Structure formats: C-alpha cells, structure tokens
Amino acid sequence: MAMVEISVEEIKASIELKLQTLFGRTFQNASKSQIYKALATTVSEYITKDWAYSKERVRKQNAKQVYYLSMEFLMGRFLENNLMNLEIREKVKKAFEELDADFDDIQSVEPDAGLGNGGLGRLAACFLDSMATMGLPGHGNGIRYEYGLFQQKIKDGQQVEMADPWLEYGNVWEVSKSDEPQLVHFGGELEYYHEGEQLKVRYLNCQCVKAIPYDVPILGYQSNLINTLRLWGARSLKPLDMGLFRKGQYVDALAEKELAEVISKMLYPEDIHEEGKHLRLKQQYFFVSASIQSIIKKYKNTGHHLMDFHKNVAIHINDTHPALAIPELMRILMDEEGLNWKQAWLISRKTFAYTNHTILPEAMETWSVELIQSLLPRIYDIIHEINERFSRELWELYPGDWDRIERMAVISHQRVHMAKLAILGSGSVNGVAELHGEILKKETFKDFYEVYPEIFKSITNGISHRRFLLLANEDLAREITERIGKSWVTQAEDLEKLEAYAKDEKFQKVLKEIRREKKKELADYILLHNEIEVDIDSIFDTQVKRFHEYKRQLMNVLHIMHLYNQILENPENGIHPRTFIFSGKAAPGYHRAKLIIKLIHSVAERVNNDKTIKGKIKVVFIENYNVTLAQKIIPASDVSKQISTAGKEASGTGNMKFMLNGAFTLGTFDGANIEMQQAVGKENMEIFGLREEEISKIRQEGSYRPDQIYEENPALRKVMDQLIDGTLEPEDPDIFREIYHDLLERDPYFILKDFEAYCRANEKIDELYQKPEIWWEKGIQNIAKAGYFSSDRTIKEYSEGVWDLKPVDPT
Ligand code: 26W
C-alpha cells in the first residue's frame, strides 16, 4: 500500500468516531490511552484491508515465500513506524495540533514490543521491515510472549528486574485467529507399526497444546506488499474441567490449564548463557511445530506437489533456537505425508538455511538426550537417525578417524548439539559479518566446512535505516533529502551523494545544530529520569548494548576512572568536557555483568558529585534500554563505543545505527566495525587494540600475563587499586574485589592489554572534537558511507544468495 489517501479532517473525524464507538468518550474527556487506541485502530483498519489483497496477490503470482523462524522479534513501537511507512505522519501530527493535543504524549502510551534480548531479535525486526519494503514475500514466525524482556530498574546502583506485561492493555496491531489453531504434542510413548510397506508411528498418552496464531501486519515503506509476523500463543486444549469445578477443586482445574499456557508466558532473558531449561525446549518445539504445520498446510492448499516444496518455500533458522524445525519437517513429510527418508531429507536440506550469531562457546545450544527423548520422543528418533546416517557418511570419508567422527556427531556425550543439527539440515550456513564468517569456517565449524565448503557464507548484517534515521532523526532526514533527494529512503547507497557536502560549512552547521537539539532532548530526559544535569556542549560518548564481559563496558568505566584521576591531578587539563552514557540490561543471573552495572553507578556517584572537576566529566546510566530509547539516544551521540574483544562480537548492529546518524566510532577491529572502517576510510573512524589473530596467538601460546601490565602501567595500577581501596564504596570496600582479582589473574577479555591503546584512542577523539570543521566533516562522511549497512542490502543478499526469492509484482 503506497501512500494512504487520507486528509487531516478525516483523521480527526475517525479518531472522534472511534472514541465514541469504542469507549463512549469525546476527545475532550478521553484518556491518552483511549486516544492512542482510537488513532491506532484507524490506522490498522486501513492496513487490514490491503493485507487481504496482498495475500491474494502473492497467492495468484505463485511467488516463493520465506518464513523467518526466530525466538525473538524486538519490534519496538508499531504506530510511529506504520505512520512513517504510510507517509501520514505529518498529517497525523497536524490533526493533533488542530485538536490541541500533544502527539508525542499519545505515542508514548504504546509499550515497546520487547520480544527479544538484543541484536538477534532486533535484526529479525529490521529484516521484516526490509522484506516488506522491497516487495519480498517474507514472514516472521515466533512466540507471542505475554511478558517481554524484563524492565530494568536501578535501585542503589543495582539492576532490579520487573515484569514487562506489554499486552496488559491489549494490542491493537494483532489479529488473533483462534479458529485456526495448530496442535502441538509433547511427551508420551511411540508405537511403530507397518502399513503395507510403510513404517508408521502412533503417539500414546501425549500431552497436546493448542497453538493460536496472532498475526501482525508488517508494512514496508511505500510498499504495496504487506507481510505477516505470526506469533504463536499457547492455549490449553481442554476446556476447564467442570467435573473438578463442581467438586470444588477449582485450583486443580485451573492449574492444568495454566500448565499448558505457561509455554508462551515469558521470554527467557539469557542472551548468552545457554541453560538447558525444560520450558525453553518446550517453547522452541511449540512455535517451530506450529509454524511448520501451518506452512505445510498453506502450501498444500496451493495444490503443488510436496516434492516441490523447496521451490515455493524457504525457511530460515535464526540461530539454533528454531533448529527443531528440521526434524519436525522430516516428521510431517514422512509420518503424515508418506514420503520416505531420502525424499524428506532432500527437501529439508533444500528448504532450510541457518544463520549463526555467536561463537561464544557458552552460547552454543545443546540439550540432554534424556530431555529431548522424554519431551519429544519422535523428534529424538529422527535426530538419532540423522546422526546415524551422517556418521556412516563420515566413516566413508574418514575411515578410522574416530576423533573426527565424534567431534562432528550431532549426538555426543549424551547431548544433542543444535548447531550441528542446523548445519546438516540446511543448504546454507552463514555468519553475520566477514570476520565472523571466516571464524566459522576456520575455527568453530572447521570440520563441517571441510566436508561442505559450498554451503558456508558471510552475509554482513544491516539495520533498518528508515527506523533509525527517517523515523528516529526526522530533522536530519529532512535536511539530507533537501540536498540529495529522497531516493536514499529506499536506495540507501544513495546516501553516498552526501559526500559532496562533507566540507560544506552550511551542512556541517546543520548537522551540528540537529545533534545539539537531540542532545538537548536527551539531556532533558536524563534530568527527568536520573536527576543529573549534563552539559549539552560536552561530548556525548555512548555505549549502549546488552551487558556482557566481552563487550567490555568494564574497560570503558576503568578509563573513566583514569580520566577522573588525571583531572584531579591536573585540574587545568585541557580536555573537552565529556558525558559518558551507558544503557543496557544484564541477564538476571549474570552476576558479573550486574556488578559492572553497579560499578558504573559507583563511579558516576563519585564523579558527578565532585565539584572540584567542574563538571568536566559526567557519567550517566539510563535505565531500561529498549528500541524506543535507542531511537532517542543514538541520534544524540557524538561518539559510539564499539569496543568488544576482537573476534567476539559476531557483527554488532548498534555500531551501524550510530554511523548512520553521523556519530564517530571508537572501536576494535571486530565484527562489522572492520567493514565500516573499510567503507568510511581509516581517517573517519578510530580503531584501536589487538586484532583477532593476535589474540588467538596469545591464547594459543598461553603467554598472557595481565599482572605484568598492572606492574608496568602506574596509571592503570592506580585505577585497579581504587577498585579495592574503598575509594568507590567506602561502606562496602570489597564489593569490586572479584573484578580486581579476575583482571589481574585472568583478564579473559584482554582489558588490561588493550587499556593503553584505548586511552590513546580516547585522547584522539578529544583532539578531533576540538577541530569542528574536521569533526563534522567526518560525521557527514560516516552518514554518506552508511548506506551499505542498510538491511535492504542484507536482505537482497539473502534473497539472491540463499532463499532464491523474487519481489512480487505490485500490480
Ligand atoms: C540462551 C541462548 C542464546 C544464545 C545466543 C540466546 C541468544 C543468543 C544470541 C545469539 C545473542 C545475540 O543476540 N547475538 C548477536 O546477534 C547480532 C545479530 O546478528 C550480532 O550483531 C551480534 O554481534 C551478536 O552478539
């Protein structure tokens, strides 16, 4: 649906009418939330009509479709994004002006759809945006968690987790289809029997849960195609047991119902540590089984032969979490559709593609044989068979090489290795940046790469440049369009035309003024929420992302302590004032990450209240990082910190969002930072620290001695000692002792080793910032070269190189 033909008058009239019919209110006596709903319902009705035509068009054209299976979709708010895509934001704003109401106030009623932890979930959301915009029929499939990622509160400098009941007041954007459920089976026993030649299987005594689809329309920018995000909710199959009810055993009756419905209650907040929880496995199979069943059903309705399935359908596995889709498709093709193993396996391998998002060993999913066997007996048998057949193949290839066969086995040491299952069952395996793809080939999946070199790829991540520039930084977007035209909105590479304005004083000034305005807005937010006053003429130096040791927020804070020491020693020190901004959540069970959050607060407390440094540096932790906050913080940032230990950050996508808004990146040679630097040039981005090869070498040699660095660097020694000498928390001087010891004895993320280089890189930033004509030129260069990092480009690569997908004809 391209631009919607609706006038300001019509918008006003529709809101008034909806308020009357939905709530029995007039605009004057309606609550904000009612006004939000009236507006959102107006918009959603426009969308829903075209949604039906869209589906029809795809069906008629017999277009191949992709289903993106993901445990996470970090969508953020829908209203603003939909208004942008329909190009009616201005009109709606006007309508609210005329109604004498604050539109921002109304928008802020909408809770974020925070159905994800971090990068992986947000990437899925950006992909949906790009597919719809590019006219590619691609749909998301996930779980309708009743509770999204926890809300973070800070109490006494510590993270406290609160529930996120985002659906409490309903969700205007979803359409529930309770009359189209799928049934998902757990547990029970199997009974194999023969029907003629064919081996069949019966399930006895299993538990059955209903999966209800909740469909959300996904709009693209000026696009005729509306795709679907299908989120599955779990519902008990049984109606309340009235027998128990009558006997007064209400609680038992309810408990049984609850047990089934708990599956889609909440998102696991662990984004790195794989925990092997029973309920998480249930979640995985639940949504994967429902998705595959409904995909097959829809496919069969087209009347095509099942052997052509892969020609019409591609299924993407976002990390290993949905990898049970592979044995599930095998199960249905064989047990229900009567195909033999060879046929089913061939189709699977041509249908599935798998993306890996991390090489951290602790994040590699494995499940105990016992658990899978008891919860999913038939699925286990299929995985077992996949493993048997693969082991025989390997035996042919590497006779006698037991070590290798064991290393590559899907089932070993009584555990099922999901990444291996995903690789074997897919026709494509990819990493999310050049370096990451190389590491997968050379290290993580080396054995598999040797057997199936042709399936391994690197596809560098991207971001929705529409959400993160056109929407999040409207004024900048307008100024860009004024200079280079509007094509960049759908052809992000056209941002390159801005290069001609890099030295243009007027455009530099514009960028500077818009940044200042954004900083002012953020400063107001900080004042309101943190009661900290920050100087908008200081450098806003930002690190926002999940808290993890490999991301090295700790190095950032150690450097702040060092800078503070320097200012105390030399108050006339000529540094430019800087505001260090942090935001991000730690997994509730990740003690060390939470302690680092506490450390940031302790340092902030100390630094912000020291009058002697005259506000030269400030430290701010903004609580409850989410998509909406990202849209606020990123356009207000001068410096983007992307400082992970080289080799650890698969790609990063936050880095790209900052670049797109013209921030200057200070980062390591890691993930997509490397490609960002190639795009923008060495002089426009500050790279520091050890390279991945160097780290690999040091690790192999076992030669790293962090204590020596501590001895040799007095400034660093001072900072380290301050962790334990009561400088920070006089009441509890031992609180950070474990950090001190870990750094001194192990320093697994090479913080001490990179510390000095990091300090120098920060000094460089300081110098650069003090030369405005150079600084803003670099800012413009960054925007100009950010086009490559649009998810439109990423999706183009997937559709051409992996899914074999073509845009549908819009007419
Ligand atoms: C509990 C199991 C688990 C393990 C890993 C849950 C979630 C994960 C994710 C893979 C973590 C994640 O979000 N990875 C990030 O994916 C982004 C998108 O590709 C990359 O840009 C980030 O570098 C990567 O850390």
TrEMBL record:
SUPFAM superfamilies: UDP-Glycosyltransferase/glycogen phosphorylase (SSF53756). PROSITE patterns: PHOSPHORYLASE. GO terms for cellular component: cytoplasm. Its cofactor is pyridoxal 5'-phosphate. The modification N6-(pyridoxal phosphate)lysine is found at residue 657. Coiled coil: none annotated. It catalyses: [(1->4)-alpha-D-glucosyl](n) + phosphate = [(1->4)-alpha-D-glucosyl](n-1) + alpha-D-glucose 1-phosphate. It is an enzyme of class 2 (transferase). The keyword Glycosyltransferase applies. Its EC number is 2.4.1.1. It comes from the Bacteria. One of its GO terms (biological process) is glycogen catabolic process. GO terms for molecular function: glycogen phosphorylase activity; pyridoxal phosphate binding. Keywords: Carbohydrate metabolism, Glycosyltransferase, Pyridoxal phosphate, Transferase. Phosphorylase is an important allosteric enzyme in carbohydrate metabolism. Enzymes from different sources differ in their regulatory mechanisms and in their natural substrates. However, all known phosphorylases share catalytic and structural properties. Allosteric enzyme that catalyzes the rate-limiting step in glycogen catabolism, the phosphorolytic cleavage of glycogen to produce glucose-1-phosphate, and plays a central role in maintaining cellular and organismal glucose homeostasis. Belongs to the glycogen phosphorylase family. This is Alpha-1,4 glucan phosphorylase.
